[in-house]
Write a structure and sequence with these properties.
With 374 residues, the chain is mostly helical. The chain has 16 helices and 3 strands. Bound molecules: acetyl coenzyme *A (ACO). Acetyl coenzyme *A (ACO) binds next to loops.
Length: 374
C-alpha cells in the first residue's frame, strides 16, 4: 500500500469521478455556471438538470413540477409521529428521522433500479419540506397547512410555515438559496451518500446518513451557527472587537472558510445582493452592517472569505424563518444532489472502501483477565 498518498481529511485527494458538478473553474452544475442558473432558472428546473443531466423542455418541466406537486403529501402515521417527537428535539434530527420514516411508506424503498431511485428522489424532494413545515407548526401547537400542489417548492415552504400568501420576492430569494445549495461535488454529506450507495443500499438510507453528515457545524450546520454571533453583536465596533478576540482564542468563525474555495465561494457572492435587499425591506440593516464589518475583519486578519452559509443564514433570518430551519432547508435542496450522486454511484459502482494507516499498539499477545493489574 502506498502510504505517501495519505492526507488528513482526504484534502486534495480525488476520491471518484463525477459528471454532476465541477468546482475547479467556478461552480457549474452539469456544465452550466451557477451564476446563470441562479439568475434565470428555478429550483425545480435545476433539480431536473442535476437529476437528468440536461435542462428540461417546457413540457418536461411542467411534468416534473406536476410530479413533485402530486407527491406533496404525508401518510397520516408520519404526521402523527411528527406530533409525538419530544418538543426539544433538534429539527435536523427530525429531518433525519423523517427521511428514514418516508422510506417505510415508500413502496419502492428497497428497489435500487435507476427508475425507482429517480422516482424516490422526486418523492423525497416533495415530502421533506412537509416534514419540516408540519413539524414546525405542530411543535408550536398549530394546525398543519396543506401544500398548494400547483405552486413551487419555495412558495410552499413559506406558505406551509406561515399559512399566509408569501411575497413573490421572498419566494424568489428562497428559491435562489435552494438553487445554490443543490449540489457541490464530493462534500462530506455527498460522499457519505455515495459510500452508503456503494454498498448497494437504498436511497432513503443514503439520504438519512447524509443528513447526519450535513448536520455538523463544519458543514451545513454553519448556516444556523452564524446567527449565534450575529444576534449577539449590536454594532460594527462590537463586532470588530469580537472577531479579534475570537481569532485570538483560535476559534473558527462560522460561515467563513472552505476546504476547496480558498479565495472565495461564488455562491456567497450571488446571495449578497439578495441579503442587502431583504435586509433593507425588513428593517435589518443593523445586522447587515454588523455582518459587513465581520467580513471585513475576518478577511483582513485571516484572509478568509465567507462561504455560502454566511449570506444564506442572514437571508433566512430576514425572511423571518426560525433559525433551526436553516440547515433543514439545505437538506431539502441537497437531497437533489445526493440523489444524483447515488444514481451516478449505482451506474458504475465499486464498493468505497479505503485503507487506514495504522498508528496503534505494536503487536502483542492477549493477557488473561486474572493476570491484568488494576
Ligand atoms: N474561522 C477562523 N479561522 C479559520 C476558519 C474560520 N471559519 N476557517 C479556517 N480557518 C483557519 C484555520 O484555523 C487555519 O488557521 P491556522 O493556519 O492559523 O491554523 C487555516 O484557516 C486553514 O484552515 P484549515 O483547517 O486548513 O481549513 P479546512 O480546510 O480544514 O476547513 C472548514 C474548512 C472546515 C470549512 C473551515 O473553514 C471552517 O471550520 N469554517 C467554519 C465552518 C463553516 O462555515 N462551514 C461551512 C462550510 S461551507 C458548507 O459546508 C456549505
Amino acid at each position: 500500500m502506498n502510504e505517501t498518498i495519505y492526507r488528513p481529511g482526504l484534502e486534495g485527494i480525488v476520491a471518484g469521478q463525477t459528471s454532476i458538478s465541477s468546482i475547479a473553474d467556478g461552480l457549474r452544475y452539469r456544465g452550466y455556471p451557477i451564476e446563470q442558473l441562479a439568475q434565470h432558472s428555478s429550483f425545480e428546473e435545476v433539480a431536473y438538470l442535476v437529476l437528468h443531466g440536461e435542462l428540461p423542455t417546457q413540457g418536461q418541466l411542467d411534468q416534473f413540477r406536476n410530479q413533485i406537486g402530486q407527491a406533496m403529501e404525508l401518510p397520516e402515521e408520519i404526521t402523527a409521529t411528527l406530533r409525538s417527537i419530544p418538543p426539544g428535539v433538534p429539527m435536523m434530527d427530525v429531518m433525519r428521522t423523517g427521511a428514514s420514516l418516508l422510506g417505510h411508506w415508500d413502496e419502492q424503498a428497497q428497489d435500487i433500479s435507476t427508475e425507482a431511485t429517480l422516482a424516490k428522489a422526486v418523492r423525497l424532494v416533495a415530502r421533506l419540506p412537509l416534514v419540516m413545515c408540519y413539524r414546525h407548526r405542530l411543535r408550536q401547537g398549530q394546525q398543519v397547512v396543506p401544500p398548494r400542489k400547483d405552486q413551487s417548492l419555495a412558495y410552499n415552504i413559506l406558505w406551509m410555515l406561515r399559512d399566509q400568501e408569501p411575497q413573490p420576492d421572498h419566494v424568489r430569494a428562497l428559491d435562489v438559496t435552494l438553487i445554490l445549495y443543490v449540489e457541490h461535488e464530493f462534500n462530506a454529506s455527498t460522499f457519505t451518500a455515495r459510500v452508503v450507495a456503494s454498498t448497494l443500499s437504498d436511497l432513503h438510507s443514503a439520504v438519512t446518513a447524509a443528513i447526519g453528515a450535513l448536520k455538523g457545524p463544519l458543514h451545513g450546520g454553519a448556516n444556523e451557527r452564524v446567527l449565534d454571533y450575529l444576534l449577539k453583536l449590536r454594532s460594527p465596533e462590537e463586532a470588530a472587537q469580537w472577531v479579534g478576540q475570537a481569532l485570538q482564542r483560535k476559534e473558527r468563525i462560522m460561515g467563513f472558510g472552505h476546504r476547496v474555495y480558498r479565495t472565495g465561494d461564488p455562491r456567497a457572492a450571488i446571495l449578497a445582493p439578495y441579503c442587502e435587499q431583504l435586509a433593507a425591506q425588513t428593517g435589518n440593516q443593523p445586522m447587515e452592517a454588523v455582518a459587513a464589518r465581520i467580513e471585513q475583519e475576518v478577511r483582513q486578519q485571516k484572509n478568509i472569505p465567507p462561504n455560502v452559509d454566511y449570506p444564506a443564514g442572514r437571508l433566512y433570518y430576514y425572511l423571518g424563518l426560525a433559525v433551526d430551519l436553516y440547515t433543514p432547508l439545505f437538506v431539502i435542496s441537497r437531497t437533489v444532489g445526493w440523489s444524483a450522486h447515488v444514481l451516478e454511484q449505482q451506474a458504475a459502482n465499486r464498493l468505497i472502501r479505503p485503507r487506514a494507516r495504522y498508528v496503534g499498539a505494536q503487536p502483542r499477545d492477549y493477557v488473561p483477565l486474572e493476570q491484568r493489574r488494576e
